[in-house]
Design brief:
The chain is of the alpha+beta class. It contains 14 helices and eleven strands.
Amino acid sequence: MKISYIFKKIKNMRYKEYVNHAKIVADKMNKSTLSILFDMAKCALLYGSGYMDYFEFEFYLLNGKERKTYLTGKYNNDIVKRYNRKEDWHLLEDKGEFNKLFKEYLGREFLDLRDASFKEFKEFIYNKEKIVCKPLDNCGGKGIEIIPIDKSIFKNEYNVLKLYNSIMKKEQFLLEEVIIQNKELSKLYSGSVNTLRVITFLDNTGTTRILNTILRIGNNGNVDNFSSGGMYTFVNESGIVYVPAIDEVGRIYYEHPKTHEKIVGFKVPDFDKVFSFVDKLSKRVPTIRYVGWDIVITENNICVIEGNEYPGVFQVKPSISGIKTGDLPKFKKYMDL
């Protein structure tokens, strides 16, 4: 483990959260907080795991041999640095640039206010009931707002200008048409668009490898992001959810708390079309080889929401699967780690 990585983690550590998570584990395992803090520090040193890796992947239930099989934040950082050329990150990071580059796969209209006039703004919103307003560099769904369009504002251009200035002030420079998801996904939760995060790697032969497929489901909000109150679960090669969902604080859901729809056993509609879709996406920017694609299934199509050059780490909790082997061996099949 590189000492520089350890020092960087220490510098950026949120100590209060670190200790709070240690207390949660200590109570669960009937151990002292100090012993858990020591074990968390040991795992950071030996396996490059952050406190959320330790907590989310339940390292406290694993022995050393099992812990070695888990993809941790350190490994994820290394993959991004090695396989995603930093000079090209902006093509995915900047949501406006991304939409222009992947326009044929969006399945929705959009407008980048950085290079659009007020007249173009007015024309864009005129025939829409709602618009999605996004910051160009949003992360975790932060700053996204869905704004209803009251047709009465067009009677007085001042009201349209007022809306325009409000959006510009909040730097929500990317406007998009609202996506209507497949009815089966709405049954799970209709308050947000429930997306798939498909993590791909473009290997040395130019072949797209799907490393993981995650179904993200909203809960009490209009976005499905984990960090914004949502939950996630895992989808197998047949498009079926095979484990319950979890949220950011570790709660487990066998059914959705709002709709009471069963999560385990849910079949993602049109899943057989997903691979060919992400295969096209992964080859559009071949210098960014490791990507988490957020896609949505509609009634008639598959649409890409965004691509993440820093995909994040998703692995099934040992306590809900009974499996104590992480994803690192799978990643090593295709990557030099």
